[in-house]
Amino acid sequence: MKRAAAVLLISIGPWLEFPAVVSAQAEAVAQGVVVAEADHSLLPAAALVLEGAALPQPLGATTGTDGRFRFARLTPGDYSLTVTHDGFREQRYRLTLRPHEVQDRTLEMALRPVEETVQVVSEANPLPSVHSPNSTFLAPDRLLLLPLTQRTNLPDVILQAAPGMIRGHDDFVHIRGHEVALSPFINGVSFWENPHMVFSPGLGADYIESVNVMTGSFSAEYGNRFGGVLDVVTKSGFTADNHGSVTLGAGTALRHNASLEFGGHTKRFGYYLNAAAFESARFLSPPEPNAMHDAGRGTRAFAQLDFNANDRNVLRLTLMGDGADFELPKTLLDAQMRPDFDNFQRTRSQSAILSWDHIRSADTLIHMALYQRYSRVRALPNADPYGAKLDSTRTLNTNGIKTDYSRFFRGHALKAGVDLVLLRPEEAFGYLSQPWITFTHLPDVSQDHIHFRGPDMGPGIPRPVLFRQEKTGGQASVYLQDKIRLTRGLSADVGLRFDRHSLAISDSHFSPRLNLGYAFRSGTVLYGSYNHYFVPPPVENVLASSAGLTSLISEIATPLPPLRPVIENQFELGVVQPVAQRLRVGVTGYYRISNNAVHTVLFPDSRFYAYANFDKGKAYGMEVKAEAPMVRALGLSGYFNYALGRVWFYNPVTAGFITEAEHLSETNRFLAPMDQTHTLTSGINYHNRRLGLWTSMAFEYGSGTPGSHGGGDHEDAGDEADHEHAPVPGGCDVRCPEHFTQNLSVGWDAVRKRERPHLTLQFNIENLTNNVYLISKESTFVQGQYSIPRLFSGSLKLRF
């Protein structure tokens, strides 16, 4: 591995009076106090037993003189907690823990009747999570319901997870108006690359144990991110339990997949391996309903080694390697008039995370981590005389160290941390636009164009733009946060973060966070939050975006300053209401305003991305989320997500790179390309455990994104009157049309008696009604993107 690095990643959490079981992964913590229901007096010496599929054996604990208990270093998932005490009824509670979550619960025990013993099964009364009710926890059973073709790419996995996930150009996922919205945290470590396939090989889902998708407020430890945080916990040999599987999949449009996984453990050592390969003739969303020159293939490899040195020390090494080779799709006009306009891209990455957890005492844990990543993106030029020529290479070396200290006492979960990262990007490209300009002048084409030329190299010599730069920079971050119980029902997450960033530009910033939650006895929970974010410029092509290349565009001829960090304030108010026992419905309103809002900009006739800072961005809306966990008696579960939103960008562009000169002189606002008024996703699942049969139906509705930077919805600053805007050739006049699609999956688990399934068959129909729709069409220089037609796929999974 190039510049192999140690990554020292540590799951945090303290432990209590009994021996620590440190084979668990991620730092979920369940803690609280046991009291008498009648007078809320503390109950010392209460016995607790925690059980769950992720535990090799049940965990036991006994409350101290203060009635408190704690289970730390728990793998996210579902658990059952049983509490007993002399003279009281036995109580059993259901718990669902998310990555990095600290649940603080009050467990009430009723006196035992003289003549009988009653076991109660119910939801515990937790101190509520103080963050947005729209976060979604994707457990393994939810991930396995997805078609295999969707599990090769993490953005596809989370598209229906939470309200307001909007599809955009080049298969981007936009969240609450953010152009660069997804920030994966892998076992607590954040790498800076965008996970979408045009920027990097991305991440797969087969080696993921669970994902917590957060779209609202975040704790200070999540740092310089906004939009959507994906808190990923990977699989471990301690949960694989000496088993593995082989999966084979096939589908229309040559969407074929194969994967192999195996994991096992001894008392102290665990290992997990996963390897996968995939291909598709519809790799990216094409610019026309029928995909042309759109094939791609890739491989992924993942390994994790866990070592429990003793009850107080855990070492973990996580290794990942990914790669993809793919074609960039073209139009029917290209096929007819530019037959050799064939562009290709290659992406490679390899990562290492080495972590160490040290349980210093019953209530204290020290977490330290080293992490490393090397990534490379290569774009190859075409040979057509009418196509713009792009030959580019971008590499990024990332090396970092992260350490934090966690202390648990009474109702507090205090955490202080430091994250130091060294970034070394290298960018080199040659770009020649003249063949494309010639193409736009052809009588049968007549497209808009700009004049983008490099320095004059003499008569008759093409004038390409040549760029090469390497730079070393990085970021130093310090954060302090406390999740605290203020009263019986009121909890708070208070945090402060300081970031010093230096790469294309240097800046420092303090970011305060305040998140509150109040739980009523009825089960209703109210939320409120204020979060301040400091987000450095995206790392992809950050040097080229900051090099003042607008001076080479004849229509602009002026260099712009380097990209600036985004400074954002976000407010949230929400409520969650339990309905009909286990159904939970959440409603959230949010408002955010950003200075230096970031937007992607394409070099004409290519897929080379740069970025621009608009003066300001604004988003506001309402989101509704409902989840119905599995009702075993009926075999039914489901979810419902709805978002009503509005997203604005404000001219002028103040920094970075832009191709449209009007954005430098206008002072109006316009609907952002990711604005979609109504977005709905939902699903219903049925599972007959006796027969092993299951089926899943997923629905998606969108009211359409704007065409040409907002279509007819431009308005002058301070003037609410709309004015007309020219339609986009080959696009949509004002908005892309609304769409409604459905995906159907049917499966069968062959189950031996009292054993897990040894064979799973799955059949999928995506876009059941064959509703092919235009996803987006941003501007003259950005191709439109179309959805998939009706596609079929199937898979076979053999466990051993």
The radius of gyration is 27 Å
Low-confidence stretches: 1-24, 120-128, 710-731
Q: Categorize the overall geometry.
A: globular
What is the helix fraction of residues, given as a range? under 10%
Biggest sheet details: 22 strands, antiparallel, barrel
Tally the beta strands. 42
Strand content bin? over 45%
Tally of DSSP helical segments: 7
Structure description:
4% of the residues lie in helices and 53% in strands. The chain is mostly beta strands and 800 residues long. The strands form 6 sheets. It has a 22-stranded antiparallel beta barrel.
What secondary-structure arrangement, pairings included, does this model have?
Elements: E1 28-36, E2 47-52, E3 59-62, E4 68-74, E5 77-84, E6 91-97, E7 102-109, E8 120-123, E9 125-127, E10 136-138, H1 140-144, H2 154-158, E11 165-167, E12 173-175, E13 182-186, E14 189-190, E15 208-214, E16 228-234, H3 237-240, E17 243-251, E18 256-265, E19 269-280, E20 296-310, E21 313-328, H4 332-337, E22 343-361, E23 364-380, E24 389-409, E25 412-432, H5 434-440, E26 465-470, E27 473-485, E28 490-502, E29 506-519, E30 525-535, H6 542-545, E31 566-579, E32 583-602, E33 609-631, E34 636-656, H7 662-665, E35 669-671, E36 678-688, E37 693-702, E38 739-751, E39 757-766, E40 774-776, E41 785-786, E42 791-799
Parallel strand pairs: 1-7, 6-8, 13-16
Antiparallel strand pairs: 1-4, 2-3, 2-5, 5-6, 7-9, 10-15, 11-12, 13-14, 15-16, 17-18, 17-42, 18-19, 19-20, 20-21, 21-22, 22-23, 23-24, 24-25, 25-26, 25-27, 27-28, 28-29, 29-30, 30-31, 31-32, 32-33, 33-34, 34-35, 34-36, 36-37, 37-38, 38-39, 39-42, 40-41
